[in-house]
Amino acid sequence: MNPTRQRRLTIIIAVLAAVIVASALVVYALQQNMNYLFTPSQVQGGEAARYKTFRLGGMVKAGSIQRSNDSLKVTFTVVDASGDMPVEYNGILPDLFRENQSVIATGHMDGARFVATEVLAKHDETYMPKELKDAMAKAHSGKHIDETVNQDKPSP
Amino acid sequence: MANWIPLWLHKLSSPPVFYGFAGKLRPWAIALALILGVAALYGGLVLAPPDYQQGDDYRIIFIHVPCAWMSLFIYGVMGIAAFIALVWRIKLAEVVAMASAPIGASFTFITLVTGSLWGERMWGTWWTWDARLTSELVLLFLYLGVIGLYHSFEDRRQGARTAAFLALIGIVNVPIVHFSVNWWNTLHQGSTIRLLGPSSIAPSMIWPLLTMMAATKCYYVASLFGRTRTDLLALESGKDWVRHIAENEVAR
User: Fold this and answer.
1) Residue environment code for B230-252, b if the CB has 16+ CB neighbours within 10 A, otherwise e
2) Cβ of A72: how many Cβ atoms within 10 Å?
3) Residue B169 lies in a domain
4) Cβ distance A53 to B203 under 8 Å?
5) Which fold has domain A40-151?
6) Which residues of A touch B61 (CB under 8 A)?
7) pLDDT tens digit string along B36-90?
8) Number of folded domains in chain B?
9) Considering CB atoms only, which of A35, A36, A133 is closest to B187?
10) Which of residues 31-50 of B touch A (CB under 8 A)?
11) Distance between B232 CA and the closest CA of chain A, angstroms
12) How large is the C-alpha radius of gyration of chain B?
């Protein structure tokens, strides 16, 4: 390799290394304070107290969905591994919204309950046909394993 | 000693040799892309069973995911070509890097649009500023930046080298896009297909996905070779080998 190429190679590798280190530091820093959402236990622990509006993420507790008869108002409970929080929402829910589904609600605290202005359903990475799901549910029902709980990400 | 590989690669990097090589390979790549693409679409849209939660709406995965893979893969190719172009000043590497940018930008655009359509139905929103969506949008802007920078120079080789520098630096975004769903809490789900460990998709749904992945790769090769051939002709327009081709065309 001739000296010119050697020099170019050194410069480019040095620039690339600097950029990689810089972005690794940015990613590392953002991991600590860039939160897309808070889980109910994090909110109850006071981590979201700095924010007026924030996103609340967790699973919809089975049997907690209550719809109003004369309006779009709906209340449900969002749970994570160690906390739960009542949520109130007035609007149209996404197709995937159902019991035991991960949801992300944007809104603010009103006393002990969370008033949402937007509710999004988080989809997990599992894709399977309905027949397979039914067969798995049958196999699981004897053991009372709620497999959707395990698919949820651990809280950071 | 297997030194025929570097020798062959060295020969291939000369514009006339690559022009001929790409011309011979291109029809095969187009044919393969078409056959695989049609098979994958039929498998994905007709044969694959509906999803247990999303019904038929999940079928956009057969377009969205292969395009998302290609958006990252092409950036990787462009980054490597840019690196070779900057250090060794090989003309072919410059051309390959610059010809890859519009193809990668198109795949990124398709990824963003299909993801948005799916998100409206499933999540309940067209767009959200989570880490995966934002970094993919940055990827599109990087592609557009490379294209723009390349064309803002009078001298094409000067433009290619400057744009190659941006392409090379932007490569740090590729692992960020890929790992964003693991590093941060995002609305976007994690990876369904894993190289290591089991994938969380049924076998009846995975084969159209992998076939479409092969089809998009073939399409990339076909499109890249086509663009590279015309760019090489334009760059080397005064050279003998181009004159030969031109004279043969006229004689025909």
Assistant:
1) ebbbebbeeeebbeeeeeeeeee
2) 11
3) yes
4) no
5) OB fold (Dihydrolipoamide Acetyltransferase, E2P) (2.40.50)
6) 127
7) 999 999 999 998 888 887 878 889 989 999 999 999 999 999 999 999 999 988 9
8) 1
9) A36
10) 49-50
11) 24
12) 20
A127 annotated binding-site participant:
yes
Could you tell me the residue ranges of all domains in chain A?
A: 40-151
CB A82 within 8 A of CB A110: no
**Would you place residue B18 in the very low, low, confident or very high pLDDT band (cuts 50, 70, 90)?**
very high
**Average pLDDT over chain B, rounded to an integer:** 90
Residue B4 included in any domain = no
Nearest to A27 among B58, B125, B183 (CB): B183
Tell me which residue range forms the domain holding B125.
31-43+56-247
User: Chain B: residue nearest A134 by CA?
Assistant: B52
- Is A144 within any annotated ligand binding site? no
**pLDDT at residue B139, as a whole number:** 96
CB contact under 8 A, A5 and B87: yes
Token pair 């890097």 is found at B97
Residues contacting residue A128 through CB under 8 Å, at least 6 positions apart: B51, B52, B201, B202, B205
> Residue A139's pLDDT is what?
64
Inter-chain touch A34–B130, beta carbons under 8 Å: no
pLDDT in tens, B172-229: 999 999 998 888 877 888 888 777 667 788 888 889 999 999 999 999 999 999 999 9
- Strand, helix or coil at B119? helix
Residue of B nearest to A124 (CA): B189
Residue of chain A minimizing CA distance to B53: A96
Report yes or no: A34 at the B interface, CB cutoff 8 Å: yes
